[in-house]
């Protein structure tokens, strides 16, 4: 396609959104190049949801092995080696990095493993000094962990470094109460660490249904996770082989590792956006329209860097929509309604649509159906934790506005149920569906 530029498309950032956009654009006939200063695959594959989910799987064996005796199994000399789990996870990260690289190579996308900076509406400069021009530029640099400013913050780790710990810490402090914090709290707790979650407010998992948040708090406290609300970290000092952690209004206490999980901000620092006349939003995000176009007509952005919905599947859809719209003359936009999400805490929770509070605010007259039950697996293993499923329904139309659940395999069950919410099905549609027995999922069609 290109005649007056080096490339039809130059992508900055080879994460989920950038790789999808580059691959699909190339398949449409565009000459494409991509720059990534770290590793091909981005946050989700290299230092995010994929390796974290593998750690979740690994930590689940602690519970499974304990419960095995109730099913007739005798497991002797149970031990855990953090280095084995860590290295196995990192090995799979290497595999995925190679797979993503091969995908780009197979589609003829040229790769530059160095930082790229925008120097104009149609030009970038690589860290090596090479100047490159492109008819269209796509920014897909994702987001970066937020590190609060307090004395000793340099002693902390974030979700970027947690996968590389030399050894498993005996005492872990986690600041934050969002999904990253709660997932790592569950991982470390299951692996036998003493976990303390500290937060500047008294709310965990903001945005999820309140009933599920309360249930998760109850269960995790019973599992031994300690919480200190309304008291963020004031300072951290080295204390021999460990750290002294001082919270607001409380006495210092010691920890072997401090993980900061207070959110992620768009990764726009040093991109040179001002050279193209692009101004950032309040959180450092790149504002875009529904076609993913910035204020500079030749520059687009997708994924977490736009701070719309920070989820990998959303970034992938945005990358696909961009490629089809720009290089296939098939205009596409992303529908951001009814996006399912999950927290791989222990136990996990998942939801789609409006929470009970949101539905009352928007619709007023709603009906709430629920099932509060003890999963069969927990009964047999003499584990007293209970699952909770909620269905939020518009009283006037019977249409399901939201589904929310906490319990074993909740995310796996919700994915199929999310289709029903997206399709606008009603409570009557669920009632008319025969239950699949015995299963936890049958609770979805038995709620009264």
- What fold name stands as the CATH topology of the largest domain? FAD/NAD(P)-binding domain
Strand % is 15-25%
The first-to-last residue Cα distance is 59 Å
CATH architecture field of the largest domain? 3-Layer(bba) Sandwich
Helix coverage percent of residues?
Answer: 25-40%
User: Measured on Cα atoms, how large is the radius of gyration?
Assistant: 24 Å
Largest sheet: 7 strands, mixed
Tally of structural domains: 3
Apparent shape = globular
Which regions contain 5 or more consecutive residues with pLDDT less than 50?
A: none
CATH class of the largest domain: Alpha Beta
* Count of strand segments: 21
Task: Decide which structural class fits the backbone.
Answer: alpha/beta
Query: CATH H level of the largest domain: which superfamily?
Result: FAD/NAD(P)-binding domain
Written overview of the protein:
It contains eleven helices and 21 strands. The chain is of the alpha/beta class. The protein starts with 6 loop residues before the first strand and ends in a 17-residue tail after the last helix. The mean pLDDT is 95.
At a glance:
This protein has 448 residues and is an alpha/beta fold. The chain folds into 3 domains: 7-144 and 265-327, FAD/NAD(P)-binding domain (3-Layer(bba) Sandwich), CATH 3.50.50; 153-262, FAD/NAD(P)-binding domain, CATH 3.50.50; 347-445, FAD/NAD-linked reductase, C-terminal dimerisation domain (Enolase-like, domain 1). The chain is built from 11 helices and 21 strands.
